[in-house]
Design a protein that fits this description.
Mean pLDDT: 82
Order of helices and strands: HHHHHHHH
Low-confidence stretches: 1-28
Strand content: under 5%
Shape: elongated
Length: 203
């Protein structure tokens, strides 16, 4: 195992909140698609998209929702709420989410109409992010090293997600998940009990 000092764990993201100022990926093409997306994000996404209580189940990924699952039916069968596990758990058994605030009857009605309409998802617009080159990455590392005392420079470790950041198919929400995954992976290499959160070294 590799022991990482908290001061040594740095993350070069090439991503700042200001870079997300363009059109949002969750901007709906229709009111129904946007309303259903918002309900799924509010009540389901924390467990099924952030914490991944069910491995690989991202409730905001339509391809995952409608995919066949071996002998099991898809989570969502477009056009058929009664055959959709998502509707059975949220609208019939009403045991999802298992705790906290529950969807209202109006929310459930919206989800049923959404599945009946084919479970359309909001159009994904291209994130307005400026391309970051390898030169940009190396410049940020150089500038950061210059700000670190000589005695600490040998302990610095840099990671970059620029290949994802430069990909217009990767949304800002997905970038957030990739950053969280990298943080968990880095901390899993440490014997320390305290979490060391990666921090950006560029703007």
């Amino acid at each position: 195992m590799i022991q990482l000092e908290p001061r040594a764990l740095l993350l070069l993201l090439g991503l700042a909140p200001a870079c997300a100022s363009g059109a949002r990926a969750d901007e709906p093409p229709t009111p129904l698609a946007g309303a259903a997306y918002g309900i799924l994000k509010q009540y389901c996404y924390r467990c099924h998209g952030v914490d991944f209580k069910v491995p690989g189940y991202n409730v905001l990924d339509r391809d995952i929702l409608i995919a066949q699952r071996g002998d099991d039916a898809p989570y969502v069968v477009p056009g058929d709420p009664d055959a959709s596990e998502l509707w059975q758990r949220v609208g019939v058994e009403k045991d999802m989410p298992p705790s906290g605030k529950k969807p209202s009857d109006e929310d459930r009605a919206t989800l049923r109409k959404w599945i009946e309409a084919g479970a359309p998802f909001p159009e994904r617009s291209v994130p307005a992010r400026e391309f970051r080159s390898e030169k940009d990455i190396l410049r940020a590392i150089r500038d950061h090293l210059r700000s670190v005392p000589d005695s600490d420079q040998g302990y610095q470790r840099y990671f970059t997600l620029t290949h994802l950041y430069n990909n217009p198919r990767v949304s800002d929400d997905e970038m957030r998940l990739y950053r969280a995954a990298l943080s968990k992976a880095a901390n899993s290499l440490s014997w320390k009990q305290a979490l060391a959160l990666p921090r950006p070294v560029d703007d």
